[in-house]
Amino acid sequence: MTEPTDTNSDTDSDADGGTRGPLGPPPGPGSARKAALTAVLGDLRAVDGALYAAVAATSTPTLDRALRRLSHAADHSKVSLGIAAALALSGARARRAALVGVGAIAVASASTNLLGKRLVRRARPDREAARVTVDRYVPMPASASFPSGHTAAAVAFATAVGVVLPEAALPLGVLATAVGYSRVHTGVHYPGDVAAGAVLGIAGAAAALAAAPARVRQPNTFTAW
Questions:
Q1: Contacts from 115-119 at CB under 8 Å and sequence distance 24+?
Q2: How far apart are CA 67 and CA 138, in angstroms?
Q3: Res. 1: pLDDT tops 90
Q4: I need a surface site. Which of 14, 60, 163, 165 has the fewest CB within 10 A?
Q5: Helical (H) or strand (E) element with 84
Q6: Global pTM?
């Protein structure tokens, strides 16, 4: 007599001939790490979105105009380049600081636009859906959101100049922080974009300082070039 077929077997075969179910091979460590990384990134995106929404929902009418103007003024690093021009007229050490600062902007901007934005391609925030007040609006850039190029350039300039000209470190650091926040306040970046831009800015400053002659990097060198 033919034995009945067991339709509840624990060793079903998938379409590729592999075994699945309770008796199949357990997920490898690579799959577990990938799943954990995906979960962590999902949580970080959730936090990032929540922070963006919190900024959008906070009414700050007295700050809106100032931060909108600052964000616009930081386009193409106009603020930093203007400061660099002023420093170039202020003595030998200030000229050295301006030179390395402009170099840091170039490195950070190239890293942001040629690498970061092309690799990640994160979409810009939907500030209409987040109900960002129109009083904060600056033009929404067409480029990818991650990382923030404005922040990268401002932090790179502040870091590099601050190493060569320590007395400028604090005011330039405050300015760079304000530029970064203004990009979130005006609704064109998530906080995570700004944080990544700051990291790239520090790296850009380090690269520019490393490439500069030793006499440029020394904060206490007063001899002219």
A1: 116/146, 116/147, 116/196, 116/200, 117/143, 117/144, 117/146, 117/147, 117/149, 118/144
A2: 10
A3: no
A4: 14
A5: helix 78-88
A6: 0.81
